[in-house]
Amino acid sequence: MATKMTANKRSVKKMMALSLCAVLMTGMLAACSGKTAAPETASSGEKTGTASAEPKLEKSTLVLNWFAEPEHGGNFAAVQQGFYKDAGLDMTLTPGGPQVSSTQIVASGKADFGIANGDDILVARQEGIPIVAIAASFQKSPQVLIYHKEAGIQDFSNLNGHAVYVAPTASFWLYMKSKYELDQVKELKYTGSLVNFVNDPNALTQGYITSEPYTLEKQGVNVGTLLIADSGYNLYANVYFTTEKMIKEHPDKVKAFVEATVKGWDYYKSHAEEINPAIHEQNPDMDLDMMKYSAEKEMDLVFSGDAAEQGVGTMTKERWEEVQKQLIEVGVLKEAEPVANVFTTEFLPAK
After folding, report:
1. What is the pTM for the complete model shown?
2. 94 and 111 in contact (C-beta within 8 Å)?
3. 289 burial class (0-12, 13-18, 19+ CB within 10 angstroms)?
4. How far apart are CA 248 and CA 283, in angstroms?
5. Which domains does the chain have, with CATH numbers?
6. Average predicted confidence (pLDDT) for the chain
7. Four-CA torsion 111, 75, 316, 156, nearest 10 degrees
8. Residue 53: what pLDDT?
9. What is the pLDDT of residues 150-202, one digit of tens each?
């Protein structure tokens, strides 16, 4: 930011020179009289001494796992309410997208923190990317399979004989096909478009409980959802991570980030409509009504389960080991590594 210059620069210099002369004269007179000049007393309403400088904030960046949305509400609340600043961080939230890899960006050192799903972190570590989960904003993934209510779908075991728009290599789908013996499903590539799903009342599509159902209901399509977490594939979603190096060299910074983020989520829980306009500024394609819907749908996924007692962000060894085992069974992971290397809860606020 450009520094502003005053118009009366010469006058200021002249006044400073006169003041200096006055000070010198006062000292000389005091020396001649054998007396020490009395210190100036502060006038009414003025503080004595030098005002303490503002603490310097440390720049930091968080790479989101998608464009700004209520799934990042806790982070926007922490920015908006000054929780990151209070923790000594000048935090920048960088949007993700289909071509953005948060794991690669953080691993390269271009950002301190990122967001990814638990299975993505396990796969990244297998590929030699030394990242570590430090908090989970979602205890359950918001990912769902969406179906037309007239199709009569009751459970994951009912999918045989139906067309499913899904990413064929998605870990949850590989697990689901194996567990429920889905060998008679017509797999169709998921592209993000809902047109073909809408036109086929017998079809299902992958999506998120926080977004697609809202869009479909607005179009008058009567849909139901199956939460992926209820299939048995219950990973942590929207997991905050950093590098092993950051944890080793800057643990205080990691702790400051985690604690401020948890504080942000606690605030967003009761003040979502206050924070959503800030999210809308970064993602104007998502209107405020949809953001309200998304925030309402995600609350149980963020604050339920272990988070109900242990607080937002908590994770357990058992949950990580379970997902790791499932990924090995479907061939996504080759071998298990100690999950103590994969995640840590040491930076979460004590409960």
Report:
1. 0.84
2. yes
3. exposed
4. 35
5. 58-140+235-341 (3.40.190.10), 143-231 (3.40.190.10)
6. 88
7. -100
8. 62
9. 999 999 999 999 999 999 899 999 999 999 999 999 999 999 999 999 999 99
Can you give the pLDDT at residue 44?
Answer: 36
> Do the beta carbons of residue 180 and residue 228 sit within 8 Å?
no
CA distances from 66 to 16, 190, 197, 314 (A): 56, 17, 23, 22
Q: What residues have CB less than 8 Å from 111, skipping those under 6 apart? A: 61, 62, 63, 94, 102, 105
Looking at beta carbons, which pairs linking 167-175 to residues 24 or more positions away fall under 8 Å? Answer: 167/206, 170/206, 171/119, 171/233, 171/327, 171/330, 171/332, 172/141, 172/143, 172/228, 172/231, 172/233, 173/206, 174/330, 174/331, 174/332, 175/231, 175/232, 175/233, 175/326, 175/327, 175/329, 175/330
Euclidean distance between CA atoms 265 and 74, whole angstroms: 4
Per-residue pLDDT of 205-239, as tens digits, reads 999 999 999 999 999 999 999 999 999 999 999 99
Element (H or E) spanning 327, and its range?
Answer: helix 317-329
Q: What does the chain come to in residues?
A: 351
CA 271 from chain centre, in angstroms, equals 17
Nearest to residue 137, comparing CAs of 292, 256, 252, 241?
Answer: 241
Instruction: Identify which has the larger pLDDT, 82 or 29.
Output: 82
Say which range, 34-48, 175-189, 254-268, 328-342, has the weakest mean pLDDT. Answer: 34-48
Comparing CA positions, the residue from 101, 137, 131, 96 lying closest to residue 298 is: 137
The pLDDT of residue 55 is 77
CA angle 65, 343, 62 (to 5 degrees): 30
Are the C-beta atoms of 113 and 238 separated by less than 8 Å?
Answer: no
Closest CA to 301 of 140, 75, 73: 140
Supply the pLDDT for residue 52: 54
Q: Degrees (nearest 5) of the Cα angle 132, 279, 350? A: 40
Contact assessment for residue 224 and residue 149, using Cβ atoms and an 8 Å cutoff: yes
